[in-house]
Specification:
Blueprint (H helix, E strand, L loop, with lengths): L1 H22 L10 H10 L3 H9 L22 H10 L13 H31 L1
């Protein structure tokens, strides 16, 4: 078990560092271009990921990510909440969805087309029966 751990831990670290490097924007990489960091991580599979984690990327405190213009949850985003109020209930999908007149007319057209096709099939069947 211990032998397997000696291979699994560096491999997991390399995979994590590789994915982290690929997901990091180019402007947040330090000292070297992103492509060079990827080569270092893959070529030196124990030292490379450790160097990437400590020196390859600009690190910020965890709380500063959402405040500096980054991603904000929808329920905390005032612009998103305004858009919901402007859309109203008729544009929302789900149990409270209201069918508009377009939906009714499309449904009636489909029903009329179905009836027409059924009548054509009945005519064909009755025509084939009379030939025999």
């Amino acid at each position: 078990m211990l032998r397997a751990l000696l291979y699994i831990l560096p491999l997991a670290l390399t995979i994590y560092a590789f994915i982290d490097c690929l997901n990091t924007p180019e402007e947040e990489t330090k000292h070297l271009p992103k492509v060079v960091w990827v080569i270092i991580i893959l070529l030196f599979w124990i030292v490379g990921p450790i160097v990437w984690l400590f020196a390859g990327k600009v690190r910020r405190p965890a709380g500063a990510r959402g405040r500096a213009g980054g991603w904000v949850a929808p329920d905390d985003n005032p612009e998103f909440l305004k858009s919901l109020k402007q859309d109203g209930p008729e544009k929302q999908d789900g149990p409270g969805k209201q069918d508009g007149p377009d939906d009714d007319s499309v449904l009636k057209d489909w029903e009329a087309d179905l009836r027409r096709r059924e009548e054509e099939l009945k005519k064909r069947e009755s025509g084939e029966d009379s030939d025999k």
